[in-house]
Design a protein that fits this description.
about 120 residues; mainly beta; Jelly Rolls; five-stranded mixed β-sheet; three-stranded antiparallel β-sheet; 2 helices; 10 strands; globular
Length: about 120
């Protein structure tokens, strides 16, 4: 899946994995590193945990219209809870993705499924 910020005309991830089941959302990036993919989209979700994470990540919370509602750059491993009111989903991205994309709250996202 490709994840774009259409407001800024930038790309957040080119090979993101969707996490759409309760198990895949709960697991998220636990015990993993970004190898062979560059992001994970959890939906539905309005919060994440960082238990058993091996690295810090950039986190973007988005609402049901795919607008960014909150961003957390460089969220450290072992943080027990991070959430956002009004969020319908979460992007877990490599550190630096927020800065590179120049994303801001209110920006519009687009998800393009690979064929």
């Amino acid at each position: 899946m490709i994840i774009r910020n259409t407001t800024r005309g930038t790309t957040l991830a080119e090979r993101a994995r969707p996490a759409l089941t309760i198990w895949s959302r709960t697991r998220g990036l636990m015990f993993m590193r970004f190898e062979g993919f560059d992001g994970m989209m959890l939906r539905p979700a309005n919060a994440i945990h960082m238990c058993f994470m091996r690295m810090p990540i950039d986190v973007i919370f988005f609402d049901k219209r795919l607008a960014i509602v909150k961003m957390v750059p460089e969220l450290a491993p072992w943080r027990l809870f991070c959430g956002a009111l009004g969020a319908a989903g979460v992007l877990e991205l490599p550190v630096g993705a927020i800065a590179r994309s120049r994303s801001q709250p209110g920006d519009q996202l687009e998800f393009v499924m690979d064929s």
